[in-house]
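User: Please predict structures.

Assistant: First:
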Amino acid sequence: MSSTEFPIKEASVHEIQIAFKQNKLTSRQLVEFYLTQIESLNPVLRSVIEVNPEALFLADEADRERNTKSPISQSSLLHGIPILLKDNIATKDKLNTTAGSDALLGSVVARDAGVVGKLRKAGAIVLGKASVTEWAAFRSKQQPNGWCARAGQAVNPYVKSADPGGSSTGSSVSVAANMVTVSLGTETAGSILCPSSFNSVVGIKPTVGLTSRGGVVPISTRQDTVGPICRTVSDAVYVLDAIVGFDPYDAVATRKASKYIPHGGYVQFLKADGLRGKRLGITSYRFFGFPNNSENSHAFELHFNTLRHKGATLVDGMVIPNFNAIINSVFNDQDIALLAEFKLSLNAYLKDLLTSPGRSLADAIAFNKKFSDLEKIGEYGQDLFLEAEKTNGMGELEKKTLRNLMEASKNGLQKLMKDNMLDALVTPLSYDFLHVSGVLAIGGFPGISVPAGYDHDGRPFGICFGGLKGFEPKLIEIAYSFEQATKIRKPPSLGP
């Protein structure tokens, strides 16, 4: 392995690009470093399912492009940068796409996922596939966060006994442990924001449709979204800039959401004074609020002071009419809708594969029953699969739940934000208070999780800035300004 004096561990995309330009680092050296990290750490952390056998070839190609000053190497911040993809994001290469399940091992996709095509166009290097809570945590309610048949149980790099979060577990753990520069995750309800918080990294859950779901193993076209998981807000924004936009394989949603993409992209909103003039909402409502008796209460009080010091106005004491009815809708109606949507969308995805061991949810259920030892079905079950298989399209019950969800979103977060003229809602993302993700999910709304501290055991926790559709510019300004003012993230010690 070739060595470099450039300190790769914890290096940002911007720092790496400067090292490239100063000939202090090559993409080959960068990829070799991460391959060594994966070889060393993955037997314990289990956050990477597969490494791309072509990764070094792609790194050499990136180095050649840089040496010949090809246009893409001069213009793209992601050129020559390694990225790990959650294992439900399709790649048309030598890597599998299995959502962590042996049931899809050996299946052949028709094409790269839309976001992967955009990453390749930007010159990023697909380093491999990150582990995932199997089937994006939609096989069984008994599944632990971060477990899948193909990789086993992913481990939190800060505290081995702590919850590593799900379902974009591997993407978050790998970035936190410096096994890759940046990564992609997906979220239906919490799967980017939750593991980002638990592993002290930054996660951006974009407005639904801002990034394509074409070629992503689905749960719900209404709620699924693809977003970056990185060590810094700026790195996450560079990745977001690369993956947003229209995709013919997710045409309706990406065309509709394209109106939210600002001219000049998202990098322009990385402002150190981005909190100045912002109105931020803080509520005491269950699932939204900062609990007074929490171990982390003092940390959040300090953060509130920081937000004020940086020029933001904090709006407290807000009232949401019929709040309990709205929350009930979020959790009950969402479950009903997702079960029916999952069966329809998964069956469509499986039928589009060129080759596959199974062509339907029913086939996946049969596989699990046949290979119960392999899949540990006896331990974790497949109750969500079985419930979804009983559904029969979007009937009257499902249509009613969708209407309820729309009303809950309209009369809940949308009303709260508009009545109080908020730029963002600020909520905790700690081990007991994750449920704002469900509220963001039903409306297709964006959120950003930023590291906010560590509890007495060393477990990380985050703070979430959430907004309405297309609020990404405001949320980026807020998150970046908060991050620059606090600089809380520290790498895991990974000691015994």
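Second:
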Amino acid sequence: MEQPEGLIEDKSKVCLLKKSLYGLKQSPRQWYARFDEFLLKNAFVRSEYDDCVYILKREEKVILYLLQYVDVILMAYSSKEESNMPKKNFNGELEMKDLGVANRILGMDIMRNRDKGELFLSQYNYLKKVAE
């Protein structure tokens, strides 16, 4: 890094960077690389169909799916207890905010029937907007 023009050179001082990683062209790629490395190190497997879907298995049974889009992560898990493990690991390595149960992501509504074990995705509002 070069010092700004007009700054008196003083080896005992440093320049304060005022621009974060956000907003730079390489930001999404850097975030994905760090996230990918972290998950693979923690026993997740990347989906062969989509690079932004990660699967955690225990005894050949899928217990957790992580779906990543830029810096948003959606978790789908088989039991509430299983959801706590990645949250604990993330908080140590990656800054994370738990926003609770997802009802909408990327323009899709998420509807569940827990009694029947069903999960539905709907783009009704998007289709309505397009039709109008």
